[in-house]
Amino acid sequence: MIYPLASAIAKTKISPNTISLMGVIFALSSATLYYYRELWIAATMLLVSGFLDALDGAVARIEGKATKFGAFLDSLLDRYADSAVIAAIILAGLCDLLLGIIALIGTLLVSYSRAKAELEGIQMSGIGLMERAERILLIAVASFFNMLWLAIVLLAILTNVTVIHRALHVWSKLRMLKTLSQAHS
């Protein structure tokens, strides 16, 4: 669904990294608005940020500009964006402090666990429930219904369940690879 727009943007001079930066600006604006308890506008800005996050990669692939550094930068900026939004929700008192911290840690570890597993050569696509798009959608929808506290509770639980799921997946794959390696020795 995003490719027609990505194709149109690819014909302009707008680079994928510029789109990534725009996404972070929207996310930081969203965080600021969460801090000031402007939930509807904050959620809208967060959704735009998430859309731009999906768009930058599509544009990079269409232009043939997908690079390892671009993927690294995109992931790095996503972590700043995620952290800023959840920190703003916590600082605004829109959720319980401890649950907010647990949700923030879980959010960061979902991405870390994927990156670390993929360094070991284990594909993580589709492993776990709470990828970035799902987290953004959960926060935005909860914001529209003035139920951010519930989103944070769900994030605190589901992100950490995702991390555990990923850890078990990696353990299983590495164990299988070790068994295969020993069988061939």
TrEMBL record:
GO terms for biological process: phospholipid biosynthetic process. It comes from the Archaea. Keywords: Cell membrane, Lipid biosynthesis, Lipid metabolism, Magnesium, Manganese, Membrane, Metal-binding, Phospholipid metabolism, Transferase, Transmembrane, Transmembrane helix. It is a multi-pass membrane protein. It is an enzyme of class 2 (transferase). The keyword Transmembrane helix applies. InterPro entries: AIP_synthase, archin_ph_syn, CDP-OH_P_trans, CDP-OH_PTrfase_TM_dom, CDP_ALCOHOL_P_TRANSF_CS. It catalyses: CDP-2,3-bis-O-(phytanyl)-sn-glycerol + 1D-myo-inositol 3-phosphate = saturated 1-archaetidyl-1D-myo-inositol 3-phosphate + CMP + H(+). Mg(2+) 2 binds at D53, D74, D78. Pathway: Lipid metabolism; phospholipid metabolism. Catalyzes the formation of archaetidylinositol phosphate (AIP) from CDP-archaeol (CDP-ArOH or CDP-2,3-bis-(O-phytanyl)-sn-glycerol) and 1L-myo-inositol 1-phosphate (IP or 1D-myo-inositol 3-phosphate). AIP is a precursor of archaetidyl-myo-inositol (AI), an ether-type inositol phospholipid ubiquitously distributed in archaea membranes and essential for glycolipid biosynthesis in archaea. This is Archaetidylinositol phosphate synthase. It comes from Thermoproteota archaeon.
